[in-house]
Every structure is written in C-alpha cells, then in structure tokens.
Amino acid sequence: MKLGTIYLFLGALAIYHGVEYRVEVGVGRPDVRIIPIVQNKTVSIAYEFKRAENDDSDIMKGATTDALDQIFVKGYRMSLPDHVKEIVEVDIAFCDKVALSQPVA
C-alpha cells in the first residue's frame, strides 16, 4: 500500500473520528489511534506496530505479542472520551513487505 493511500484512508476516517499518530518514540500512546468524535460512534481502534528482524514466523509472532503487551502495559486505553464503549487493539509486526497480526484472545 502506498503512503498516499494510507493518508487518503486516514483522511476519510477523520470525518467522524479523530486520528492520532505518534511520530516520536516513547510518548505513552499507540502508533495510531482512531477515536470517534461523534457521540453515536462508540468504537476506538489502537494500532501498535513492531519491526521484526526477519520474516521468520516465530520472530514475527513474538513481535506481535510485544506490540499487544505494550498496548496493555502502557495504558493506551486511558484518556478516551466517555462515549467510547469498545476498544479494538491491533498489533502488527512487519519485516520489509511481510506483515503479521494476531487475533486478541
């Protein structure tokens, strides 16, 4: 996916959602967080990305686990509007053009 496509997608979301993204490291927020700004939209999505050293499946799975752990340990569920009732956490590990995301148990 090209960068322009990603910006187009995030821009379309901004009609009903606030889109936060983190450029710097270690600020206590997920890499991308989509927060509904309209009261009848109640789902927020947090994305945490991890770069894996290579595309070995065990290393990629470990990186997705690290990403999900980071979402919980650093409290990315905090500071959301009161109307948010559901939070979806997405962990994505990537190495070059290979990406992996695991379902939350």
Written account of the structure:
The protein is α+β, with helices and mostly antiparallel strands. The protein has helices at residues 3-13, 57-73, and strands at 17-21, 32-36, 43-51, 86-95, 98-100. A five-stranded mixed sheet has the order 1-2-3-4-5, with helices on both faces. The longest helix is centred in the middle third of the chain and has 17 residues, at 57-73. The mean pLDDT is 79.
Q: Tell me the major beta sheet.
A: 5 strands, mixed
Q: Outline, from the CA principal axes? A: globular
Helix/strand order = HEEEHEE
Helix content: 25-40%
Distance between the ends: 28 Å
Q: Give the amount of beta strand, in percent.
A: 25-35%
Number of beta strands: 5
Q: What structural class is derived from the secondary structure elements?
A: alpha+beta
Average pLDDT confidence is 79
Which value, in Å, is the CA radius of gyration?
14 Å
Q: Total number of helical segments?
A: 2
How many domains make up the 3D coordinates? 1
- With strands numbered from the N-terminus, the spatial order across the biggest sheet is 1-2-3-4-5
